[in-house]
């Protein structure tokens, strides 16, 4: 029996990414993206001035609720650009900046724990790639993450606005999140099992258990010996996104101390949220995929020949430069045109001899 079991907690999120820029004519003044469970569902900016659906289910959502589409469009093309233009100007003043290219970003939204029902809101701001200020929903006050964030003093005193933030994070955001999940459930709430492979660079390298093509990203991978999870000699990688919206991850096992007769005692175990059966891959040399090719005598000779040619080229080139500089010192502007071609001729001859 395995010591590790995947935590059954399932969390969903709704995030609005806002980006305002100043001083860059080739960049939209304002951009907005809507993400559900970290999957982009919609996008707009001040150049296109419309909301674009990035998922089929999001288009269906807008078709069924045109008022929401109109609301998003008005906010993205009119209301939010004005608000963020004023905010980025205010922040520039706090940094004593009168020009240049600057970026103000925020991600606001909520996370919903499907099992416990807990709602977590967030609204941090970043300026020119660094954390700037963040809202503390428990105290309804702003936390200055940079010394220059004196804007905190003004935002703390705006009680009405902060209460509106609280209402959004605790009521509207969870409601919209669940509505989006309902429309996108066939895509967002699906489970895709991965393909699992054993990979190895060289016979002495760690064996990498690699899973790709799984969804959602709530997964765990680990190695076991005789059914018990290993912690030593194991290196777990992070879960990474694929271009098609699925995910990949790996877990490496150091086999330097594993004897060949013990290989069958090791298993790679992959667990995916929503799937009861684990995917178990036994450590088997016959199943390992690698690009490594055992060097042959011909390969060694070719490598040696290339190294010799490179060394000769360096030596001859250095000698030519030495003679050229010596000639310039003794006779003024003397240029050895024939010498400048010597390295190329010599290399060509060496290649002919080696073949």
Structure write-up:
With 355 residues, this protein is an alpha+beta fold. The protein folds into three domains: 178 residues, MHC class I-like antigen recognition-like (Murine Class I Major Histocompatibility Complex, H2-DB, Chain A, domain 1, 2-Layer Sandwich), CATH 3.30.500; 95 residues, Sandwich (Immunoglobulin-like), CATH 2.60.40.10; 52 residues. Helices cover 36% and strands 30% of the residues. It has seven helices and 19 strands. Strands 1, 2, 3, 4, 5, 6, 7, 8 and 9 form a nine-stranded antiparallel beta sheet that branches. Strands 10, 11, 14, 15, 16 and 19 form a six-stranded mixed beta sheet that branches. A four-stranded antiparallel beta sheet has the order 13-12-17-18, with no helix packed on it. A hairpin with a 5-residue loop joins strand 15 and strand 16. Helix 1 crosses helix 2 and helix 6 packs antiparallel against helix 7. The two termini are 61 Å apart. One of its GO terms (cellular component) is external side of plasma membrane.
Explain briefly what this protein structure is.
This protein is an alpha+beta fold and 355 residues long. It is built from seven helices and 19 strands. It has three domains: 11-188, MHC class I-like antigen recognition-like (Murine Class I Major Histocompatibility Complex, H2-DB, Chain A, domain 1); 195-289, Immunoglobulin-like, CATH 2.60.40; 303-354.
């Amino acid at each position: 029996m395995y010591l590790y079991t995947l935590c059954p907690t399932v969390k969903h999120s709704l995030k609005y990414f806002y980006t305002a820029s100043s001083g860059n004519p080739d960049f939209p003044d304002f951009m907005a993206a809507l993400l559900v469970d970290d999957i982009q569902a919609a996008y707009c900016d001040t150049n296109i001035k419309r909301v674009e659906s990035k998922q089929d289910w999001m288009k269906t959502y807008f078709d069924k609720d045109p008022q929401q589409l109109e609301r998003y469009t008005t906010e993205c093309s009119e209301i939010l650009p004005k608000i963020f233009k004023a905010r980025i100007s205010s922040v520039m003043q706090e940094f004593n900046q009168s020009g240049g290219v600057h970026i103000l970003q925020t991600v606001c939204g909520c996370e919903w724990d499907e099992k416990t029902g807990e709602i977590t809101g967030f609204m941090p701001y970043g300026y020119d790639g660094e954390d700037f200020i963040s809202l503390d929903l428990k105290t309804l006050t702003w936390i200055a993450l940079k010394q220059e964030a004196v804007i905190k003093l003004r935002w703390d005193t705006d009680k009405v606005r902060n209460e509106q933030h609280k209402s959004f994070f605790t009521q509207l955001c969870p409601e919209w999140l669940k509505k989006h999940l309902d429309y996108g459930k066939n895509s967002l709430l699906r489970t895709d099992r991965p393909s699992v492979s054993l990979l190895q660079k060289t016979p002495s390298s760690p064996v990498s258990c690699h899973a790709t093509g799984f969804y959602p990203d709530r997964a765990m991978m680990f190695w076991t010996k005789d059914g018990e999870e290993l912690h030593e000699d194991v290196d777990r990688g992070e879960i990474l996104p694929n271009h098609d919206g699925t995910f990949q991850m790996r877990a490496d096992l150091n086999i330097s101390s594993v004897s060949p007769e013990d290989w069958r005692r090791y298993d790679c175990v992959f667990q995916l949220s929503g799937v009861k059966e684990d995917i178990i891959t036994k450590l088997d040399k016959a199943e390992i995929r690698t690009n490594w090719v055992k060097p042959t005598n011909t390969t060694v000779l070719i490598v040696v020949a290339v190294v010799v040619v490179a060394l000769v080229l360096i030596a001859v080139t250095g000698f030519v430069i030495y003679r050229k500089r010596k000639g310039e010192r003794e006779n003024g502007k003397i240029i050895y045109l024939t010498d400048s071609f010597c390295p190329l001729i010599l290399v060509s001859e060496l290649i002919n001899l080696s073949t």
